[in-house]
Amino acid sequence: MPAARPILPWVVWGVGAIAYAVAIINRSSLAALGPATQEHFGIDATTLSMFAMIQLIVYAALQIPVGTLLDRFGATALILVGGILMSAGQIVMATVADVWLAILARVLVGAGDACTFISVLRLLPEWFSLRQLPVVSQITALIGQAGQLVSVTPLALAVALFGWTSAFLGVAAVGVLVALLGACVLRDRPGMGTAFERMTHRVGRISRNARSLSAGELTGTFSVPPPETSMLPSVRRSRVPGIGFWRRARRLLTIPGVRLAFWMHFTTPFSLTVFVLLWGTPFLTGGVGLSMSEASGLLNLLILATMAAGFAVGPISSRFLEHRVPFYLGVWVAIVAVWLAVLLWPGTPPMWLLIVLMLVMPIGGPASMIAFEVARSHTPKSFMGFSTGLVNTGGFIAALLVIVLIGFILDLLGAGSPENYSLGAFRLAFAVQIPFWVLGAAMVVLERRRTQRWMDEHGRTLR
Question: Under CATH, which architecture does the 246-463 domain have?
């Protein structure tokens, strides 16, 4: 069936990308519903921050275990399991009134979310050529960001029109439908059946005749043999659970470039994560005093700016490899300068300044991806997955701490509920970002110097 050869890879990718967009909708489903969540459950700001904090903890903690399961069971199984977990979480969120059950719902959402993105990325090398992978990966990320647009305005509007229960049941229903679609369409690789075909033990002709778009070139996870890891001591397998993990982490962190990458990922993305995931809407409505429609418009602008920044930062960092750390620090300066202007502005920040914030703050997300490029430049390929997970924890650690501290400070100031929100309280609460920015930038500068010395000693050039 010749027609299936060029079309099926795009169909598989399209369904995978939709599954990722749905995961983003679930992840950021409280983005515009902070005040509504507090009113629905009768909770203070600290408890509200627990929703996002626990969700992020689960997401980050499951990255390495999910990668292990991905190697064993394949991408399709993990995408379907992720969709089911997220739908179950949203059903719980829609129907319970107890706060701890609602937190359990966010645990399920975080677990399902953790299964999705890396599984979708795992599909791509099986269906596309090496030349196509960068573009397809970038488009996948952009489609995921588009999912945030749904969670900002349409979901908030659905809650206002149809109520909390109906809106979240609707999100769960979409997740179930996408999971069913995935069971009928997704295939781990050419020649392999869908989940439905494997359950019925009947692999159809489309699956049997499927071909990759690689046009004969090697694809897949092991198409390029990994080089030797001579720069690191060998890590012996330990029979004591957990010992091997810490040995690998300790030995990997002996490379200054890996530590540099960790602190780069720690420093710029957390502000964007905190704003989009939880505290943006309360700040704009309860602090600045904007209407819900104005706040939603600014959040939509923020998301669109994040997508646009992804297009711009990638080519810049690739073209100027030896200057990517100074470029990154320039992004840090811009983000800190705009935030300080907002926090120190006498009176209510003007709309033009808020728009500038929505355009500058999102650059921190794509800029943090430079950290993974730095890690790849300094990590042996046999340690690459472990290094990526290690670096990825940097931004999550900062975001988790800032989310909790903002809620704690609001409660401490007596402004922990929507009726008590004030601009002054939010200014003090958001000022908690400053020590994280200072710590991160100082460590980036320090580790960059150490990295340069390390590379000079080993006769390598900075890339």
Answer: Up-down Bundle (1.20)
